[in-house]
Design goal:
- By secondary structure, this protein is mainly β.
- About 5% of the residues lie in helices and about 50% in strands.
Amino acid sequence: NIAWKRVGPGVWQHHIPVRNANSGELRLIKVAPGQRLPEHGHSGAEMTLVLRGSYSDATGTYRAGDVAEMDETAEHEPVADAAEGCICLIAVEGRLRFKSRIARMVQP
């Protein structure tokens, strides 16, 4: 019963309120099977816990129960599993830095 908000083709998210929003954000993200997220970097740390399915990027493949950690030096373009997609819990500091002009224009 999650109130998913569509943020792009095959991508939905749900923000989870945190007490001190100045220190970062917590969100669930759901990505449709085979969907590629826009290439992006990070302006702070990001930790991703895969809850269901899996995704791959240049650093490897992450399956349910895996945690991926990125910092401001990392850039990646995650792709959800072709059969089942993925659902992840993501904790981020700062904003994402999208490479594509279109992704930057629609970024909240």
